[in-house]
Amino acid sequence: MGNCFSDVAGGQSAVGGTGINHGNQANAPNEAVDAFLNSRGYQGLYNQIELSLSATSLRDRDVLSKSDPMTVLYSKEKDGSLKELGRTEVVLNSLNPKWITKYTMAYYFETVQNLVFRVYDIDTQFHNQDVKMLKLEEQDFLGEASCTLAQIVTKSDRSLTVDLVCGEQSSGQAHAQKFGNLTVFAEESISSKTTVELRLRCSELESKDLFSKSDPFLVVSKTTECGIVVPICKTEVIKNDHSPIWKPVFLNIQQIGSKENPLIIECYDFNSNGKHSLLGKIQKSLLDLEKLHSAGIGANFFVPTAVGPKQESKVLKSQLFVESYSEKIQYTFLDYLASGYELNFMVAIDFTASNGNPRLPDSLHYIDPSGRPNAYQRAILDVGEVLQFYDTDKRFPAWGFGARPIDGPVSHCFNLNGSSSYCEVEGIQGIMMAYMSALHNVSLAGPTLFGPVITSAAHIASQSLTNNERKYFILLIITDGVITDLQETKDALVQAADLPLSILIVGVGGADFKEMEILDADKGERLESTTGRVAVRDIVQFVPLRDVQNGDVSVVRSLLAELPSQLLEYMRFRKIQPTF
Q: Where is it found, in Gene Ontology cellular component terms (predicted)?
């Protein structure tokens, strides 16, 4: 799922647009609520990016004048096919055009968005035609350029210049001939930064539980032009409370449309099985909510009592109040990228014996001669292919744990490259090569301990923080089993929560990972160390990847989608603002 990436505390980690502070017990996302929202069609938020194009030193294909160029923008799909996204206008008689037509597209952090640009010289006889109607095969091809959207937005000025090559004629050539340059400039829509901060409370909620009070949370939805109700944000769950006051939620104006558009606010009693009970609903616009706050009054919830044309409802005693209301421009994830922040990828791989003999096909570490990646390789590739664009040097720390190196004791954090002095490898392929080499140079052992690798990652993040480096670290842990050092891992995570670090844990194989989900704080319980210290924020995302070999990587991408909001939560925690 995509994300809003505005400077909204980590509530977006569950559903985009909701502000939370993971230092609060009831403030972390929970899996059942997310499943409930997904079942109702929630697709998440994103950044709107406007692309502007210009070119220099184009080929001159006209005899008596200069070329009349037009650019066609495509997205390159997974299967290599091209999908046309848009066309610029035709600029007459120019080898250095600056096109006026912009293209607006959604930027998704968790996906590699490959773009292809093709420039054509439009023949004079077609100048009066709508560019959408032009047959490209009838025009002169001037050159082609390609890049990813991430390569553009990670530049400090959000501008990328790429060579135009004669792509249609250079297939199979080692060095394509250059035919000028294309410059792509990305600008974030300012409306995507305008956010309304609301703090909501309720009074006299109904009890749906037999032996205790309700566990309420709010879901805010909008209605599309087609009449479809789409959830856009939620609060945290507050346990055992009929007069809850939630942490602030953040609503994106761009996403809602306008302050006058009606919103549906529903209050539910949380149930761990995902079948949440409706406590009441209300329909108000942002303008209405602002008026409620100004007047200091509440609005009564209602519940539908009949469906169909009549749509009768019953007004309840319970009320919704707006404790605070404010509008502000929030810093976005892209603002921090533009000010020089990088995401640094790290990986730790489970080499415990429960993975099975790597030489046998039923092992999770089996290297298929056909080249088909195993579960570990697939997770590395799918996370790494996204994060590599946000790391300039592409030198990635890589560790293994739970194995016995040659002539040594069992190690719970060894350098994957075999070195005793440094842990970095070059690029994603460097990780893959070090991983395959390690399979031949270590003996699988056990038990499964996370503490040492988390401590190593935290040490790197701490050094970076001390040196005032603009870096945020992501540690990917891939494991096949339940950890045996749960409390030690909690201690390490509580300490690491203060640092510029997020941790993705991917469970592979068929083990029962239920205990592992404790680390993800998905039920709202904050992690607590043996000394009683509570984590200031949630930095762990966990998912069991049951079927990665069959291409089920959507869960990996959903994990990646949470990283921008975790970075923003850290920036708020440290009170760090982007500098340009």
A: plasma membrane
Q: Which residues contact 275 (CB under 8 A, 6 or more apart)?
A: none
- Answer for the pair 229, 40: CB distance below 8 angstroms, yes or no: yes
Q: Which distant-in-sequence residues (6+ apart) come within 8 Å of 377 by Cβ?
A: 432, 435
Amino acid code (one letter) for 120: Y
Based on its alpha-carbon atoms, the radius of gyration of the chain, rounded to whole angstroms, reads 27
Distances (CA, A) of 576 to 363, 495, 573: 45, 19, 8
Q: Which tokens belong to 207?
A: 């009890």
Q: Does residue 13 carry a pLDDT above 60?
A: no
Q: Which residue has the higher pLDDT, 511 or 454?
A: 454
At 259 the pLDDT is: 87
- CA torsion angle for 498, 244, 216, 42 (degrees, to 10)? -60
SS3 490: helix
Mean local confidence (pLDDT), 259-280:
89
Section 285-304 average pLDDT: 95
DSSP string, 63-103: SSS---EEEEEEEEPTTS-EEEEEE-PPPTT-SS-B----E
Measured in whole angstroms, how far is the alpha carbon of residue 265 from the centre of its chain?
25
For residues 349 and 477, give the distance between their C-alpha atoms in angstroms, rounded to a whole number: 6
The β-bridge partners of 87 are 72
Q: What is the mean pLDDT of the chain?
A: 84
Greater model confidence, 184 or 407? 184
Distance CA 115, CA 77 (A): 9
Q: SS3 string of 277-312?
A: EEEEEEEEEHHHHHHHHHHCCCEEEEEECCCCCCCC
User: Coil, helix or strand for 13?
Assistant: helix
pLDDT at site 173: 47
**Which of 36-40, 93-97, 460-464 shows the highest mean pLDDT?**
460-464
Q: Return d(Cα 435, Cα 441) in angstroms, integer.
A: 10
**Cβ-contact 5, 560 below 8 angstroms:** no
